[in-house]
Amino acid sequence: MWATARRMASTTRSASSAALTFELVGKCSTTRARASILTLPHGQVNLPIFMPVATQASLKGLTPEQLEATGCRLCLNNTYHLGLKPGQEVLDAVGGAHKFQGWNHNLLTDSGGPMLLTPEHSMSLQNSIGSDIMMQLDDVLVTTHPDKARMREAMERSVRWLDRCIAAHKYPERQNLFCIIQGGLDLEMRRECCREMVARDTPGIAIGGLSGGEAKDDFCKVVATCTEQLPELKPRYVMGIGYPEDLVVSVALGADMFDCVWPTRTARFGNAITKHGVLNMKREMYAADFGPIEEGCGCQCCRPVGQEGSLGITRAFIHHNAAKETVAAHLLTLHNVWYQLDLMRQAREAIIADQFPAFVKKFFVGLYPDGQSYPSWAVNALRGVGIELLGR
Amino acid sequence: MTVDTEPQEPESTAMRFEVVSSALKESTAAAARVGRLALPGRRPIDTPNFIAVTSRGTLPHVTPDNISKHLQVSGAYFSLEDFVEKSQQNLSRPPPIFSAPTSTNHPTPLYSFTGTPSHITTILAARRLPAVPSPIGNSTKSISVFTNTGFQNLSTTDYLSAASTLEPDITIPLADLTNNSPPGTSPTSKRALRMAERTDEWIADWFSSPLSTSTSTFAPVLPIPYPIQWEYLSRLAEDYIPSSQLSGLAVHDPDIIPDLATHQPSLLSLPLLSLSNPSNPHLILRHIALGTDLFALPLINAVSDAGLALNFTFPAPPSPGAPPLPLAVDLSLPSFSTSVTPLSESCTCYACKSHHKSYIHHLLQAREMLGWTLLQIHNHATMSAFFGGIQRSIKDATFEDERLSFSRAYDSEMPAGVGERPRMRGYQYKSQGGEENAGKKKNKPAWQKELAVEDDKVEVPGTDGGRELQEKGVGEVVKGSGR
Question: Which of A110, A132, A138, A256 is catalytic?
Fold first, then answer.
């Protein structure tokens, strides 16, 4: 440890493409974690970042103003859903999804997936949406797909589709198109895909096809394999990742951006994400619990009464209305989104201060107070980048 | 008239109500009037005005930060039955709200449990507004209330003790109401007489308890003819006004106000809160013309749930000879899909400043909860502006003329709203026998969308896709409830 623990030289380096600047502002001297600033057409965002998902141009009951107050500056819309409702014509008439939903910060859209038939159609819709980051149409197979030949075909098709997406993309000067690395769990195929995709020089790079039920060990290997090969001065986005442990480990493996519907969906089921794990507020034990949703949390619901903007929301009130009044879902959504964004803010600060390994250990002790029963996939993945969770 | 300079009564922390100006000379006539209701520590309420109606302690769809930032509402109606359900897992647990700790920001358990901003005047009643009819009658010392886990009895002593613990600014004591008869029908005269007798007895018990001093009391005025409840009302006037124990009246039917003016004019020195649930602004104006000061308006929540944006002003815009305008815009209609104008041109609410019809139309189509939130913000703002206009016109002595113009300018009823409502919860309705078989389910089944009644567009318009599954987290508990 001591041998490698050296302060990072303050060599801020950056790279730009037409509609994006990526500035690396800190690197962990132990792991592959990075802190950076991504400047997009609708402003600057700090990486690593969690991006909440506003599937149908609305973040589950929050006003854009409330979402902004959580610190969110980049959220997702789903292309497929917006293509159905309100539809491309409306988006064109209104002038894009930012105007449509009253969101003046950045948007990222997925490709629309296999429901959209062609790369051209996907690009056309995403151009109408006007998202700051667009995703290429890719051919996604579940990573556990047994047919290697089919997996290769999907990977190669994704590369070809990227070329078609690049050709069909109308506004490269104001919208960024990210490629998506495919290749299932086959690390060699992933490497090959990385080479092909990187050669196309998109402004950012996503690692796709994961979070589809593969073993966590395999997931980590894929992320680590890809980040090892990706250019340093481009943002790396691991798609569909949202559990706090997954975020922290993926950051350690060198990924920068994540999205997942889980934090907002689980809020609607009455679940609160906390540093000690997920709490189901519908349980009887919270009925007369007048503490905040999470002690020490800085979200509007939880911050101590008397602080600016504090709402003084108790677990008892959430219990009282969970699955009854929509307000309970809105409050838990506020909390959960804050939790996810704050986790990434803390990771970022730790990386810049070169304290990231200590942050990771503290995070895992919060979830596993005995300091023992850590999931083995996390222990292994972190060991691979120089953090030893067990012992000492 | 000037709230600050009046000589202070012995209880200087008590509620104060001043009539500032009235359409008629005396403030005890049945006539439109402007006043100010002030409770210690709360934002004063200029009247005529309305208070928001909460459900389970919250304004539906609006979080407390949005209430503080975006609504001008200064009062809220709470029902005790929303808080006292028996826990099915823990039958012996007392309702948690009674032990909620207080703080400077949340000075009573009612505030701290619900997170209600402290500038809001809190008004507690036993039952939701409108109340779900109870098949069980009231008894000599208790009424039947409907909780999330079913019907239960609420005794007069339990209610008194709840009010003294929760310390709402204003409490409406129990009334013996016939909640089991269909709306619009009046009780038999024998029943009406007993309603008056019981309510009279309960009020006497209420005021004889020292517990009742922790809150200002608005005594119920029953929805029965004056001659049947005259004894009760004269006791209110003759015993409890002189003793300063009575602070206001909770009027179930404002049409009784002229009788009060004739027979018990001193009662009209009190603020009059209407619980009559008017279905449109014309009725509100009529009740204001009779002297109503404050309205609890469940109408607004219902209108928002129906996908409607209120669209009227007082005074009405001049439009001689033009056909009447609709009172609300139905945002579920496809014609709004590309409309980038605000919900209402003259409105300055958050929803109108930040969003447009097209987006709210989309949110309703997609059943995104934000649609109802934005409509609540707009509809409460529209109602605030409406009452502001009424206050000005009473001061300017133009109220009656403007009321007439308003009645000509607008449709007489609210549009129905073709949109699909949010899922109904168990505490919001009691399914009637046979309803389920008659295809009158309150909620569309989530799993059998294809079987949804196609031709009944008002209740169940078609929707698509898997979102409904996502939304089930919020809408899980839909089973009949409460039996």
Answer: A110
Q: Where in chain A is the domain with CATH 3.20.20.105?
A: 17-260
Strand (E) or helix (H) holding A34:
strand A34-40
The answer to whether residue B357 sits within a structural domain is no
Burial B347-380 (b: 16+ CB within 10 A, else e): bebbbbebbbbbbbbbbbbbbbbbbbbbbbbbbb
Q: Domain residues for B30? A: 17-296
Residue B241 lies in a domain: yes
pTM (two decimals) = 0.93
Cβ distance B369 to A310 less than 8 Å, yes or no, reads: no
pLDDT in tens, chain A (392 residues): 333 434 444 458 899 999 999 999 999 999 999 999 999 999 999 999 999 999 999 999 999 999 999 999 999 999 999 999 999 999 999 999 999 999 999 999 999 987 778 999 999 999 999 999 999 999 988 888 889 999 999 999 999 999 999 999 999 999 999 999 999 999 999 999 999 999 999 999 999 999 888 999 999 999 999 999 999 999 999 999 999 999 999 999 999 999 999 999 999 999 999 999 999 999 999 999 999 999 999 999 999 988 999 999 999 999 999 999 999 999 999 999 999 999 999 999 999 999 999 999 999 999 999 999 999 999 999 999 999 999 75
Q: Identify whether B434 is part of a domain.
A: no
| B453 domain residue, yes or no | no
Q: Which residues pair with A24 in a beta bridge?
A: A13, A36
The domain that holds B56 is classified in CATH as 3.20.20.105
Task: Give me the DSSP letters along B349-380.
Answer: SHHHHH--HHHHHHHHHTT-THHHHHHHHHHH
d(CA A190, CA B13): 74
Spatial distance between the Cα atoms of A330 and A62, rounded to a whole number of angstroms: 6
Task: Please tell me whether B378 is known to bind a ligand.
Answer: yes
Alpha helices for B73-179 (secondary structure H): 109-114, 156-166
| Chain A positions in Cβ-Cβ contact with residue B358 (cut-off 8 Å) | 86, 90, 93-94, 100
Task: Tell me: ipTM over 0.90.
Answer: yes
Q: Are B421 and B428 within 8 A, CB to CB? A: no
Total structural domains within chain B: 1
Q: Is A163 a catalytic residue?
A: no
From B62, B113, B476, residue closest to A323, measured CB to CB:
B476
Judged by CB atoms closer than 8 Å, whether chains meet at B350 and A94 is answered as: no
B361 is in an annotated binding site: no
The matching CATH number, chosen from 3.90.550.10, 3.30.70.1560, 2.30.40.10, 3.20.20.105, for A17-260 is 3.20.20.105
Question: ω into residue A244 within 30 of 0, thus cis?
Answer: no
Across the interface, of B56, B464, B471, the residue whose CB is closest to A324 is: B56
Got the DSSP string for B316-336?
PPP-TTPPPBPSEEETTSGGG
Chain B, window 301-340: residues with a beta carbon less than 8 angstroms from a chain A beta carbon: 337-338, 340
Q: State whether residue B437 sits within 8 Å of chain A by CB.
A: no
CB contact under 8 A, B473 and A265: yes
Smallest Cβ–Cβ distance between A329 and the set B103, B354, B474 belongs to: B474
The closest alpha carbon to B363, from B381, B349, B348, B378, belongs to B378
Is there a contact between B308 and B332 (Cβ–Cβ < 8 Å)? Answer: no
Q: d(Cα A296, Cα A286) in Å, to the nearest integer?
A: 18
* Catalytic status, residue A218: no
Q: A-B interface: how many C-beta pairs under 8 angstroms?
A: 175
CA distances from B151 to A24, A348, B127, B307, B442 (A): 63, 53, 12, 31, 19
CA–CA dist A350, A379 (Å, integer) = 20
- Shortest distance between the Cα of A282 and any Cα of chain B, in A, equals 11
